[in-house]
Fold these 2 entries.
Entry 1:
Amino acid sequence: MRTVGVVMNGVTGRMGHRQHLVRSVLAINAGGGVALSGGERVLLRPVLVGRNEGKLRDLAVQHDLADWTTDLDAALADPANEIYFDAQVTSARVGAVTRAMEAGKHVYAEKPIAESLEDAITLAKAARAAGVKNGVVQDKLFLPGLRKLQRLVEGGFFGRVLSVRGEFGYWVFEGDWQEAQRPSWNYRAADGGGIVLDMFPHWHYVLENLFGPVRAVTARAVTHVPRRWDEAGTPYDATADDAAYGIFELADGLVAQINSSWTTRVFRDELVEFQVDGTEGSAVAGLRRCRVQHRSMTPKPVWNPDLPATEPFRGQWQEVPDNAEFDNGFKVQWEMFVRHVLEDAPFPHDFASGVRGVQLAEAGLRSSAEGRRVALSPIDLGDA
Ligand SMILES: NC(=O)c1ccc[n+]([C@@H]2O[C@H](COP(=O)([O-])OP(=O)(O)OC[C@H]3O[C@@H](n4cnc5c(N)ncnc54)[C@H](O)[C@@H]3O)[C@@H](O)[C@H]2O)c1
């Protein structure tokens, strides 16, 4: 049994605490550690890092952890800490990850890896120059619904994929008469907020991994709700986009159209759903479920607004079986990254792919600001 120190920055936040500390790192340890190919097991020793002593101490007590500090450089100076993980607010990411790489640590980070394409490229190049393993969280790929969708793609279910339509969103309360359920920095442009920067990196890796590289984007980003109330109940100007309507062009004429919104009310089965239409069949995948309709089972509705709907359209789809056990997606990716660090196992979710996610976000914002389609060109990060 081996133990690897993991410096975890931003663990007092929503993602850092719940998904990465509790559901990933601590869950991995509770399950006996990460299994390496030779049968060896690796436990992770989290070192909690943050700005607020009191919050860190409380968190350490809550989870019975010994190591916490407000001094990032001290945590990075300890050679037993081989991995640095960052789930801070996006605007704080580049500086801290850079320091970790300078200290020779392997680095794993939440998305987006930077606020701008220029910074993302600098970070990816620095990782290559330092020769450290690097990774970005791409959790949606590991959701049961998307894993089943991927299985359908790989099994040739769709024939030629024609289009993808995605709906993501829910109502995020303004914060006056009911507390907002997301942190206020998300709604301030100056603090790295905005739904394009938040969600387009997700859409990028989902589209790229399932359907191929994104070639161009046309987007309209808007701020539908310009005034919100923060964690202290103080009103502020919401300067960041809270909804984005995007069209993404892929190879062979495949068009993906994805709405992202914190200003919509849910009339769907899940908070995100993708409908994929192909020549041989269609699928609708959410976070957990995936349903299909084969061409042989496709009804032939006739447009007649004078009559009520004659067919139970939703009932004409079949549920795709799990056929596997799906663990927490964040945890699965953590295990992959640890294996990547310790035994060079494959890990395609590197900073180079994180760069392409930020590229799509930046192109989406430019498309919206300039009112035009923006083509994406390949990014050269130089030799490894
Ligand atoms: N993978 C996903 O599905 C997913 C979902 C939500 C957020 N995220 C990403 O995770 C990161 C954190 O998001 P969150 O929702 O957990 O945010 P959060 O506000 O809940 O947490 C932010 C963390 O950063 C720390 N921090 C460091 N510097 C800060 C500063 N200057 N101002 C404020 N906080 C600072 C906070 O103390 C806190 O620990 C973001 O980069 C976001 O894009 C990813």
Entry 2:
Amino acid sequence: MEPDFNKILKEKYHYRKVENLTDMLLDAQEIYGFLTKDSLQSISLHLKMPVSKVFSVASFFDGFRFTRKGKYHIRICKGTSCHINHSKFIIDSFVKELKIQPGQTTKNGLFSLELVPCLGVCNNAPSFMINERLYSVDGIVNIKEIIENLKLEFTADGIAKGS
Ligand code: FES
């Protein structure tokens, strides 16, 4: 059972300090997997702050999501090493192929995109991860092929499970 977010707000943040806003957002994301409309509304009521302002703070940070993660969650590094090694090409390719922006999930729930500050493998930049699988790009990378293979893997999984 999910923890009661309103109860957490009342107990953990009973001083109702605006300085705790990002911690509240982190707690909400931890519980629901993303920032639901209800969780933003709860924080807004708790801090007596317009929900638009809560949303604007949350959307300022790359780490907050407003949709559920996809079955394949793609995290692309936008750190300095990756940036100077052309990570923009990787970001643009995923955006183009999946037709979603970072922070979004495809309509079929299969893929979601996120930009992260560093994956901790700067020597192998540029890098990205799909779920727990790390990809370090040391030549031409075919993002379209990676996506197609994951779609096939998903379909094969479904057939194997009889769905
Ligand atoms: S900067 Fe990309 S992995 Fe560290």
